[in-house]
Amino acid sequence: MTNSDIKIDKNPYITILQLRGDYRRYLDFNLNLKDISLKRDSYRLSSTRFLTSGKYNIEENSLALKLDTIINSNLGKLYLAGNTALDFDDINHTLKYNINTKVNLNRDFLSSYISGIEVKRFNTIGYS
Questions:
Q1: How many CB atoms are closer than 10 A to CB 50?
Q2: Per-residue model confidence as pLDDT tens digits over 78-116
Q3: What distance, in Å, lies between the first and last C-alpha atoms of the chain?
Q4: Is the pLDDT of residue 73 over 70?
Q5: Rounded alpha-carbon distances, angstroms, from residue 101 to 67, 77, 126
Q6: CA 116 to CA 111: how far, in whole Å?
Q7: Could you count the other beta carbons within 10 Å of the beta carbon of residue 41?
Q8: Contact at 8 Å (CB) between 61 and 38?
Q9: Which of 101, 92, 95 lies closest to 65 in space, CA to CA?
Q10: Residue 107: what pLDDT?
Q11: How far apart are the C-alpha atoms of 78 and 103, rounded to whole Å?
Q12: pLDDT by residue (tens digit) across 30-50?
């Protein structure tokens, strides 16, 4: 990556779990990305699960996508699941998404930034 301190530790590879459709109308897919590993300074990120599935509608130039991933880091662990839908011809007005995350921060990492404050437990943050 240019103009960035981010380094790719491993070259990820994509496994096509399922691919079907009509090349004139739509394409359904299920993909698994493996060995995604990034580093910036002393921070490391790697995925243990990165599943994505979706449908690309060729006639409408639109995409519906689902994501299910777990990312490990020396900062903590991130669980992310979500979905999105968009029309490539009008992204600004059609982009919709729903994302659910759970973040488990590494206590040692967190403590180094909030020294003097004891963190026992965070309550779930909800907002509507």
A1: 20
A2: 999 999 999 999 999 999 999 999 988 888 777 777 766
A3: 36
A4: yes
A5: 11, 10, 11
A6: 8
A7: 8
A8: no
A9: 95
A10: 80
A11: 5
A12: 999 888 888 888 888 898 899
Q: Give the residue carrying structure tokens 């994505």.
A: 52
Residue type, 55: K
Q: How far is CA 93 from CA 6, 61, 63, 89, 117, in A?
A: 32, 14, 14, 10, 43
Quote the pLDDT of residue 83: 96
Classify burial at 102, counting beta carbons within 10 Å of its beta carbon; exposed 0-12, middle 13-18, buried 19 or more: exposed
Q: Report the distance separating Cα 104 and Cα 50, nearest Å.
A: 18
Contact 69, 80 (CB under 8 A): yes
- Kindly report the length of the chain: 128
Lowest-confidence region among 7-21, 56-70, 79-93: 7-21
Tell me which residue has tokens 């960035």.
Answer: 4
Name the residue among 102, 40, 38 with its Cα closest to residue 68: 102
Residue position matching structure tokens 């490391």: 44
pTM of the model: 0.69
* Pair 71, 47: CB distance under 8 Å: yes
